[in-house]
Design a protein that fits this description.
mainly alpha
Length: 352
């Protein structure tokens, strides 16, 4: 445990570097969008329409969002025979979201959350199962909902100013990645067959045999994957808890997706509840796989390019910035507080 803690303390420098990059890129692109899209008429209308009620609605949605996320973790932890407080679940979500947002392709969030649960006395296998299950529930949600919307609410889907082929290539890529991850997670034989297939290639086999670190990584990965599949089998004995975890996932994303309509209504425009929900579902099929920390830059430009289909051009820059502030910067602030405490920030300050 101590070695693992030290590793995270040493990685704080990388966390701060990622934080600087993600905020700088995000603010830059938000500023560019506002400068090139805002007009005086839209600004005056937005300022005259701002209400305290809209702010209270956003606060209420964020509270629901945080509680639903924390509850999801608490439920899945209980399925392993362990216990954490709801507040611990909320901290786990916020701190993990912070780490995800400052690392490319959100790669740091999952390992950090496993570390967090392990510190709470939950073994690594069970901790990994909890985090991976939450990850899978997220993928299931977007895969199923995207298919549902494509079939029944296709009219609500629009690429905005993006060419159709770019929009659908991006969506198709996200969908293929999601399906692949689901299959690799729930069908053990697929991953084993893929590894066996790779080892039939002479160059790959020779490279692995000569590189001890790669060989060790593969062995460790296969062991952890085996433990995960065994843990997933145990979940079949906790179907009610899994159902409640699914409900928590739906509430979590639904509360997040209602923020844009509230922003639009608060600025005096049509909220477009259905279109906002549908397009955010499609958008989130792709955005997690962007290379920049927190998908900074890509998220702002992608959001403005797609959502301009139903958000007036004069306020698209403002809406983009407000959306990112509420769902991104705000999480960075709160999540950063909890994450840095867990990573030994106090100890680092005293040692520095």
């Amino acid at each position: 445990m101590e070695e693992k803690e030290r590793a995270y303390v040493l990685d704080i420098d990388k966390v701060f570097k990622g934080l600087k990059i993600t905020i700088s890129i995000s603010l830059l692109f938000s500023a560019i969008l506002i400068v090139f899209t805002l007009d005086n008429e839209s600004l005056i209308k937005a300022l005259n329409s701002v209400s305290i009620f809209a702010l209270l609605q956003i606060i209420a949605l964020l509270i629901i969002n945080f509680v639903a996320a924390g509850l999801g973790f608490k439920i899945m932890v209980s399925a392993t025979g362990n216990y954490i407080k709801l507040f611990d679940g909320i901290k786990l979500f916020l701190a993990g979201a912070f780490i995800s947002n400052v690392t490319p392709m959100a790669t740091g969030g999952g390992p950090f959350q496993v570390y967090f649960l392990h510190k709470k006395g939950i073994n690594l296998g069970q901790s990994t199962m909890v985090i991976l299950t939450q990850f899978l529930l997220r993928i299931f949600f977007f895969t199923i909902m995207s298919l549902f919307f494509l079939i029944f609410f296709n009219d609500a889907i629009s690429p905005g100013i993006l060419p159709d082929y770019i929009f659908y290539i991006g969506f198709g890529t996200g969908f293929i990645i999601a399906i692949s991850l689901i299959l690799l997670s729930i069908v053990p034989s697929i991953s084993e067959n893929l590894i066996s297939l790779l080892f039939k290639i002479k160059k790959v086999k020779g490279f692995v045999q000569k590189n001890y670190k790669v060989k060790r990584l593969i062995v460790k990965g296969r062991e952890e994957l085996k433990e995960f599949h065994q843990s997933m089998e145990l979940l079949t004995h906790h179907k009610v808890k899994v159902l409640f975890a699914i409900i928590s996932t739906v509430i979590y994303w639904s509360s997040l997706f209602l923020i844009i309509p509230v922003i639009l209504k608060g600025l005096g425009y049509d909220p477009h509840y259905l279109k906002a929900y549908v397009m955010q579902t499609i958008f989130n099929m792709v955005i997690p796989y962007m290379l920049t920390p927190g998908a900074s830059g890509v998220a702002e430009v992608g959001f403005a390019s797609i959502f301009i289909a139903f958000i007036p051009k004069g306020i698209i820059g403002i809406v983009t910035f407000l959306w990112r502030f509420i769902t991104f910067y705000f999480i960075l602030i709160i999540g950063g507080f909890f994450a840095l405490r867990e990573l030994g920030w106090k100890r680092r300050k005293s040692n520095g």
